[in-house]
Amino acid sequence: MGMMNDDQAKQHGIYTKHETMGNGERRFRLLHEDGSSYCRTESTQGAWQNSHFHKGITELYVVQKGWIAFAELTTEDKVQIRILNQGKDVKVKPFLAHNIYMSADSVIHTIKYGSSDIATDWFASPKLDEHTRYLESMDLIRWQE
Questions:
Q1: Tell me, what's the pLDDT at 145?
Q2: What pTM, to 2 d.p., does this model score?
Q3: DSSP symbols for 54-80
């Protein structure tokens, strides 16, 4: 038993990918070539991510610090938004268009699992973006009241 370095992990299909997103979020990822992954996301300011859905991957979002707004597009093309505070979570099944607004200085953990026979199981949802992009922090805080 002992520590593994990154090259040894890659032999098992595991790799890391860390980046700063355009909205200022810092993402620290541990990924497997089968599409499953873990990601810690730290926000620096309140901002939306990008609306999307997956065809074979399920996502679990867990709020460690701060709060997030979870937006989803229902099968009737209606938008539902829930505010999730510290300690809360939401599970997102395949084909559900969704988006996350992270409040300033928040931290979430995202676990992706399932199976997908396509290389990139991430599909944009412009229709949901149309409904959420204009909502800012104060709008969302009022939403939960």
A1: 47
A2: 0.91
A3: -SSEEEEEEEEESEEEEEEE-TTS-EE
